[in-house]
What does this fold into?
Amino acid sequence: MPSARRPSLSPTRTRPTSTPRTSRTAHRPRLALHRRTAPVVDTPADAAAAASTPRPRNATLAALGVRNLRLYVASQVLTNTSGWAARVAQDWLVLSLTGSAALVGLTVTLQFVPMLALGLVGGVVADRYSRRRLLMVTQSVFGLSTVALAVLALTGHIQAWHVLVAAFVGGLATVFDNPARQAFVHEIAGPQHLRQAISINSAVFQLGGLVGPAVAGALIVAVGEGWTFALNGVACFAAVGLLVAMRVAELTPAPVVARAKGQLREGLAYVRRSPRILWSVVLAGFVAITGVNMATVLASFTDQVFVADAGGYALLTSMLAVGALSGALLSTRRRSSRITHLVLLAATIGVVQLVAALAPTRPVFIVLLIAMGLATLLYLTGSNTLVQTTVAPHLRGRVMALYVLVLLGAQGVSGTLIGWVCEHLGARAGMVACGVGPLLGALVVGLALARRSDAGVRGTVRRFTARETLRPAHEVAPAA
It folds into this structure.
């Protein structure tokens, strides 16, 4: 028979009945476990899969161990690099045929106008239909349009209006390709490799924008515009073949969104209610409006400051790509992305560009270009990762469509803006203008986050004070 427990004579040791010993001790291991593991998940099923998967020593190599992801990355390397090369070849061909810079600008406008007008619609379509099949269709359209240009150019029948029509068709395909491609990453990688897959995909996309123009310059000089178009067509059809070769059974099923009214407004309202996504999109617009379009300002530096030829321009572009490649390698090793990190990276981009505007010699300018490429790639991959790992799965296509719309739309405006500054005020003034956008964005978003954080702290203090004031006297714990 167990002995009776003697009551304590000290009133200060009496425990309140509302807080038993077992409830507090049982809660501690949960807190410790929560601090150790913070997987990126979208649903309870994803949470269970992420929890049951051990963290590998090299998460990037583990992600590339997924067969479907390897096929997808290979397709993106082909299409992004050759696609950017084909766009540069289009612009150069129009200039060669007509000698009109205005028609070159019209070619660029026709590539971006469909995205500005229908970009959000492309996100709705990406949420309703199979993203893998959408990518097959869009890559086929890209391939057919560029193969047509290749045939016309190689046979000597090419005219300027042919290039303009092809640019518009490519812009229409981009409307549906971009959101589907961004959202398809989750289906390929699954929850356990999602962050690394997003970083790899973002790095490949941004590297294509930096390396593609350099490849275009070499191809145009070596074999001409026609074979540059033909190469892009082959790459697009190869990408379709890689998508077909994927194992559908190994894809993570995406939520099926039935056709309904108000789905576009639903996506916009979701972004407005999600501060992390909202401020990430706003900051991306500030950075892209001047900070990431380096082609025009580097051409001006080559011609006005360093007085070099096309080889000098290729050298500067290559150094920017070297920095971007370094940033891509670093981004795949990063485990988390925060909005405060993005603000600091945007400020870094702006500061490096302001310093580069004052560079006295070309070697100093090259070092700053490498730093610029590294910071820009880290920012772009971090921003994309933050948005994709925060958004709800059934809204991923619509939210990514808005993000891409802001990013590419701002870049479209950037070319005209920076070109005007370089032409009228000089190359160094153009580089200063490049730094204004990222710095202004870091200032605006940083102040907004600081005000939000300060308001949250004040609200917490007020709620705590009110709760302590309203508690009955017998519930207040005595002082030690």
Notes: The CA atoms of residues 120 and 402 lie 6 Å apart. The chain is about 80% helix and 0% strand.
